[in-house]
Model the fold of this input.
Amino acid sequence: MKLYRTVILCLIFTLISCSTSPELFFIRSYLGIPGTENIIETEQKIDSEPRSFPLKTKEIPQNIIFIIADGLGIGQLTLMFYDVSDFAPSKFSNLGLISVHPSPPRKVPDSANTATSMATGVKTHRGGIGVDENDEPVKTVLEYAEEKGMLTGLTATSSIAHATPASFAAHIDKRSKYNEIALQMAQSDVDVMLGGGIDHFDGEPKNYFLNKGGKIIYGIEPDVNHSLPLLGLFSDTHLKSAEDGREVKTLEMAKLALKLLNTSFKGFFLMIEESQVDFAGHANNSEYMSAELQSLNSVLHYCLDFQRKNPNTLVLFTADHETGGMAVEDTKEGDLHVQFTTGHHTANLIPVFAIGPGAEAFSGVYDNTDIGKQLIYFIQQHK
Done:
């Protein structure tokens, strides 16, 4: 009997000595079992320092395709997941989350401050285009790319002078100054600009662009090679919704831009905006939203196919902010049912997807300014 008790006590002592659970840690300490000090030392050495951007990745992309779905959050992605047959975001290799607040003290952003942060790596106030919080101009990733001799492009289903595309090529205190923004964009060195905005470019911006040797088109003809710089204006202001028969599809603009930009041995930078996910959120219109998300899914698939054929290309996909506070529910029959909590923007964290050289930098949780810092770093590494 004594031998039996001895064996049991030895087993208990061994289990207590080997276990790393917090409860048995205190038992070991009380009994004076060796190893307690080492465990305390190990726990104190845990590295909790946050990483800082930019990250020095193993590879540097030659080309960058930056896709921004304006107004898209987890709710919109959930609708997209159940609404399409082949969910393109699942094809990306890396996933992160970003905060999107403007300069303090506000938490809810707009497209101007968020796009500016992703284009420049700095915070700004709501409404600021390519400027810091004091309205001082800040160089954008697109402008860094131009300095390196890369070809550059912007496409949008809004006016091309709208907040998101403008933040990459203009510098002004208020996003509502469309004609001034259009003039700055006409004067810029962007090689390809495709979207709406005939009214915004009419007059001085249009004349300046033509006088510097640019070409303006009002529709897309397949298999036509255009000279650069190229400005495509396909509607007076914003394009029609995908549901109502958009004049030129987002996918058509993406295809034309990539065809023209993928001719440079120095690489290219292209920003593609699926602008009207945001419009659908403001309208609290689930049918509108569904059509825009299907358009987005087709663009993502095309860009992912391009990346597979051109593995030196980084494809980065995110949103500037979420609009509508959208959530997906279902009916008793299992049909999708979309609910909105607001007709405005929210402060929700936003997902980021990446694939290609340098994609690992975009995993984790960080601020939207870190996207700008990382993209600028990639451009600066170009020879």
